[in-house]
Amino acid sequence: MLSKAMLKALNDQINEEMYSSYLYLSMSSWFKAQNFNGFASWLALQSKEEWAHAMKIYDYIYLQRGTVTLDAIKKPTASWKSPLDVFEAGFKHEQHITSCFGKLMDLAKKEDDHATEIFLQWYVSEQVEEESNFDEIVAMLKLIGDHTGNLFMVDKRLGKRA
After folding, report:
1. Is the pTM for the entire model greater than 0.90?
2. What domains can you pick out in the chain, each with its CATH number?
3. Which residue ranges of the chain lie beneath pLDDT 50?
4. Based on CB atoms within 10 Å of each CB, which residue in 8, 45, 93, 119 is the most buried?
5. What is the CA radius of gyration of the chain?
6. Do 91 and 140 touch, CB atoms closer than 8 A?
7. What DSSP line would sit under 47-65, residue for residue?
């Protein structure tokens, strides 16, 4: 059974994950409006993945006989200066999410909540991949600069994400 503190923290993390989904959907929309359909597709898939992360926590709470309490999702940013700006913002956001999961792990350890600690280990590992994905794209965009042809090549490459 989850403590009140852990239940609140997990509910807060559902909101963080849903905001992540909303943010990436907003980023996708920004790219779509500029006819960068590969970038848009990559971020739309990222949005769906974040929603799935929220639902995994949602299901876990009920497995532990808790109750999910949903809160308002804050409005995400809707425009950026450049593709690089978008992915730098995404990388910074993933670092924030990594920090959130670190705090959840600390709470689980403090409360000797072994089940939640084990549950959260998947997210800790997942965050390594999440940060790496954004960091790789940031590095690529920094290398190519503002060269439109190269941006379209990256756009095509990211559009192949399944």
Report:
1. yes
2. 4-158 (1.20.1260.10)
3. none
4. 93
5. 17
6. no
7. HHHHHHHHHHHHHHHHHTT
